[in-house]
Amino acid sequence: MDVKSIILGLLHYREMSGYDIKQFFTTSIGFFYDASYGAIYPALKKLEQEGLVTKEEVMQTGKPNKIMYYLTAEGKEHFRAEMKSDIENPVLRSDMLTRLFFANLQSHEEQKDFFHQLISYQEQRKMNLQDNYEKSTEDLNDYQKMCWEYSLHQLDSAIEFFKKKQSNEKGKKVVHT
Fold first, then answer.
1. 3-84 fold
2. What letters, b where the CB count within 10 A reaches 16 and e where it falls short, cover 70-93?
3. Would you give the distance in Å from CA 18 to the centre of its chain?
4. Cα(111)–Cα(169) distance, integer angstroms
5. Backbone angles phi, psi at 16, to 5 degrees
6. Which of 12, 52, 97, 108 is a plausible cystine mate for 47, CB 3.0–4.6 Å?
7. Whole-angstrom Cα distance, residue 82 to residue 3?
8. Interatomic CA distance for residues 53 and 24, integer angstroms
């Protein structure tokens, strides 16, 4: 799913400003899909041009006016069609895996430090995700909970995988190319 389709899905729940949409990305699906303001606002503009959303300026006292976006009937239909389309292959871009790919170019001591960092990084991500999940669980439907639980399961698996690899790597001689 692209950013435009996700925004249509979010607007099913309630009207939102661009800021609200960014916050939703950050606090709910950011573990597996993130979008910057630089992606959200152009997507909203395109959705409006296509008649899939409308916007309304809300006057506020003491702060700038807010633009709220609403889903149109055409937007609902477009989202339903998107949900029925084929699931796309995931696009994975991982700094962590790229560094792991080149870990053989490091000294043995640097590799040990790197594995320690990998495990610590995954454990910290899991703690943060678990904390956010616990804070929002009462507001989530069963499918949204499933996304969080799947993400936590992935982190558990990554931690277990790296700990196992770390123990297997102890004592191995490092070959540099």
1. Arc Repressor Mutant, subunit A (1.10.10)
2. ebbeebeebbeeeeeeeeeeeeee
3. 17
4. 9
5. -145, 155
6. 52
7. 12
8. 18
* Tens digits of residue pLDDT in 26-72: 888 877 888 899 999 999 999 999 999 999 999 989 988 999 999 99
pLDDT digits over 148-176, tens only? 999 999 999 999 999 888 877 665 544 44
Q: Where do we find the tokens 């409006």? A: 48
CA gyration radius, the chain: 21
Query: Which residues lie across from 165 on neighbouring strands?
Result: none
- Side chain identity at 129, as an amino acid letter? L
Beta carbons of 8 and 75 less than 8 angstroms apart: yes
DSSP string of 108-133, one letter each residue: HHHHHHHHHHHHHHHHHHHHHHHHHH
H-helix or E-strand containing 156? helix 142-169
Note whether 22 and 38 are within 8 A (CB): no
Token pair for 126? 């899991």
Q: Which amino acid is at 124?
A: Q
pTM: 0.76
Please name every residue paired with 16 in a beta bridge, in sequence order, or none if there are none: 69
What are the tokens at 61?
Answer: 């006292």
